[in-house]
Queue: 4 jobs
Job 1
Amino acid sequence: MSYKLNKKLVNLVPYDPITGHYDIRLDANESCFNLNDALKAKINKSISQIDFNRYPDCLAKAPNKAFSELYNIPEEIISSGNGSDELISIIEGCFFEAGDTIVNVSHDFSMYEFYAQLYEVKVATYQKEADLTIDPDKLIAFCKENGAKGLIFSNPCNPTSLGLDKAAVRKIIESLDDVLVILDEAYMDFWDQSILSEVNNYDNLIILKTCSKAIGLAAVRFGFAVANKTITNALRAAKSPYNNDTVAQTIVADILSEKEYLKECRDIIVANTKKLYGDILEIDKKYSCFEKIYEPCTNFVLIKTDEFEKIYSFMLENSIAIRKFKGFIRITAGTEAENARFISILDRYFSK
């Protein structure tokens, strides 16, 4: 009898991002800034000093130290991962057992549910309000009704671009004191409602951070989990010993130490996002073409529209990649020139 894949794997399909060359990429929520020549030279010098025949530092002390100094939190409560994806996988695979229930929300990052199901953890999905916001009291009640062992959500949210303020997040964590809350703050660098500095106040909280958005290191694949010492020790024990290679550690440590550079990039991205949002509002005012334009606290704008397929295809025809979902399009803020080009093509689409 020939070997057969188990039921978890048999219907899985590989992740399928937009491929091919496009002049402007506004589809993946990446930073619009590549590293300048001075920073590349700094990295090259650091990499040239690596002992490539040696295993990497299993605790990633250098990037953890740089992260600690950037966000002003203790090093001993930081764990590093190969992107936030690896950390989500480790947490959902090791902090829960088969048959446990994790609550996620809809709409949110799809990998939360993917990894949970891969580890045979049950997923109960809380449906957001019609305006795509979360009602904290309803979410708390939903977790209790479903006997949740875990709750995972992004704040601010991808793909909605909306967020919960600190008070609402604290209420959720404190009301679910026997539930592990995994709070993904991947986009919080663009907003001011982080509770990262409060993580030691809770024994049921893990906060995830990434280098792929505001930090501008999507190519490196590096993320951080921040939690109290008990959870951090367990997470460090559960991960692979050498999950972050030395090259990635070196690059991240170098760039996270560039505080002024990172602040400048972040401020420009926030300004560009506000301008993009305003320009889209003007397009809607001109043509009355969208059902809803969501005011973002992220680096992207979400639009509700029945023409999501047509707009998406028209943009690709004009060498601009954006993201589509059923009933929505999502546009990452690019440079001023990239945003202006997008608005010009969007205007041309509706003028026809």
Job 2
Amino acid sequence: MATLKTALVTGGGSGMGEAACHRLARDGMAVGVLDIDGPAAARVAAAIGEAGGRALAVTADISVRRQVKAAADQVRLAFGPITVLINNAAIESFTAFEDIDEDSWDRLMSVNLKGAYIVTQTVLADMTTAGWGRIVNISAIGAQSGATHMAHYTASKGGMIAMTKSLAIELGAQGVTVNSVSPGFILTPMSRRAIEANLFPVPAEQIYGGYPIPRLGQPEEIAAACAYFVSEEAGYVTGQVLAVNGGAYV
């Protein structure tokens, strides 16, 4: 395996994905910044380059396999086999369960769960061929605790946790670890939109103000958890869910 590892981060153009891209680049990896928003991915890749790192912006809708394959091929051409994957890209929705229509349900599942399946399948052979790989699936606190008006979102994220455990069992003997980071209330563009639109059942301050650590989390704190899971030191850790949520799930 080459000394320089290549990582692919989905949803790398903003929020937790952006923070993960910067962290992995600082840790010495070449990074494929994948996002459906091409200019956002380009901005992150440029910032990494300006800081002395190596990054390439690629654009894809992760629910479309041919787009994912094309993006992964671009990253491989630039940096070599992809042996680190952060499945972070996701969309959210706040809707009472009785009002969720099938199109909304299908779209969330298609991006949040099917997208992770497609991206993982697309890069997995790079890892098994190398006999070394790291996969981190970003789930959500709602997958563990439930969340009002987010049944479709939490169901998709619960699927991420189940897939994490199953893949950990299936791939461990091939040198590939699979873990999940479960964020709590993190200050991201997604959470800002929800806060500004008053989409939570109570004010946001009331939610995170009741946590043992009573504040919003930062994207960099999720990136730090990802950095541990993809490190050499975490080679004997697989199938785990690390909740980075200020103690909320306690």
Job 3
Amino acid sequence: MSGAPAKPGAAAPEVGGPLLEVRDLVVEYATANGKVRAVDGVGFSVVKGGCLAVVGESGCGKSTIARALVRLLTPTSGEVLLDGPAGRQDLARMNERRLRPIRSRIQMVFQDPYGSLDPRMTAADIVAEPLKLRGVRAKADRERAAADLLDRVGLPSSALQRRPAEFSGGQRQRIGIARALASRPEVLVCDEATSALDVSVQAQVLALLNELRRESGLTYVFISHNLGVVREVSDEVLVMRAGRVVEHGPTATVLASPREPYTRALRAAALDPTTMRGRKPRDVLATAKGAP
């Protein structure tokens, strides 16, 4: 990823080598009819503090990439290189023993704010769990840190002892972000992190992600189907279709002058309110139907 100018409100990426680099990534799934190649030779890189968006329609392989980056699945081939004090390490080929101490460096915010949180746990316990894994032994210290993280994502102290069912979708997604931040990650992979939310709440979560990036220099890989959403957060965009990259470049350039017909179709869909994913507020529905 090249050092593209930062968007207003976003952090300026540091000049230097990439923090995360993916080379010739291939992911295949076994089916009754043989192997299906979900991701076919994908490559990209992201500098520290940068944001790369991966966009495309459902089934194009973008969520498979997200899961491969955080090793929720093992790539068939290729490299996922994460830079650090010990040099560049290939997460794709590591066994679980070697991977365990590195997992905290690259975390994920999931698409479903309703299904990604344990309904039996309080918000404080959900956020404190990674702290325990990180070695924070004293319960009081974990509770204090969890309260600070929830405050950081804009939730009040009264939220600490409430369970997921007591929160709205946007609030649950904020808890998911706080849980990811508890591991002190350098890279945050957001897999359709706003698509299940009301369009108005999407804007709030995107603003939060930009604020966190500006404050702490987080590096993002942002998975989305919607070019209108990635416009708000990303420096560069990778457009995928059927497991392959069809276009890649600075977000502003790709959105203003897309080279590929497929990208132009995605851009047109992003501008049409009838194609919006997620729950839509009434004013958007009225606009889509041509109501005054």
Job 4
Amino acid sequence: MRIGLIGTGRIGSFHADVLSRHPRVDALVVTDTDGARAARVADRLGATAADGTDDVWAAGVDAVVIASATSAHTDLIVRAARAGLPVFCEKPIALDLPGTLRALREVEETGGVLQLGFMRRFDAGYRAARDAVRSGVLGRLHTVRATTMDPAPPPAAYLPLSGGLYRDCLVHDFDMLRWVTGREVTEVYAVGSDAGPAMFRAAGDVDTAAVLLTLDDGTLATASATRCNGAGYDVRMELAGETGQITVGLDDRTPLTSAEPGRRSAPPRPWPGFLERFAPAYEAEMDAFVRLVHGELPNPCDGGEAWRALLIAEACELSRRERRPVRIAEIIAGATVRPGSPVPG
């Protein structure tokens, strides 16, 4: 099969490398707004560099992987859906609910295929935690704690385009809360701090955030994130039930030092970032897309899943801004979901 890849930045280049080695991908066509960057990736991998998205379509590709700037996602998804091409798109579909709905409706109306890039669904630890919850070994779940801590802030130019800490970063934790527990979030209360580098205040964003979330069965969850965790990249989830407890992300590269005498010291080689920590998950995710295109498995993360995670992020932004609890139903009511739409209401 021939795959077109749009966007050869950090994550796009990683996907290109994975696809170039995949035994069922016969040809890879890449493009980027930075043509020289796309050419370098193509030369390194033996792929074809296209001058733009028009040339990707003209190359007769069988599917499209979108790893471009978020602002281009909706239009690219719509174009691929109208061309009858299955799409893998990095999260988010868009930085707002109207753009997300536009893409999802086009996919629905054309009978298209859209898989979203929530790679933690393919991580061995999160999958084991999901199995533990469903097996009942933890008993009644009462508390969930999730955290994502980046070792250093992104470039200042990235912040105004990112959608903010809740949509760009914590949205992964929101997806995992739903996927691991099998429950829906009904209400959030979110706070944030911009006390770090001045570029966050300039962008109207926060560098650190914390959220209290209530699930539909009464389970309480917290999710926290920061862009300024100098100890290293730290992504974990803890799930506590009446008969057991399990932790995701605690290994010999987790950047933690125990304060207890004679206990664990910080690892000499902590995780430097998300690509290293989740490399096997990214590979499994892309393999799942290839198999999805071949009709060998159901969609592991369709557009509706991305929609639900974005609803939680939107509720968090409103909660932080207005300093109050926000129910997810309030966000849905303002999203203009048309009658009969498959997008969850």
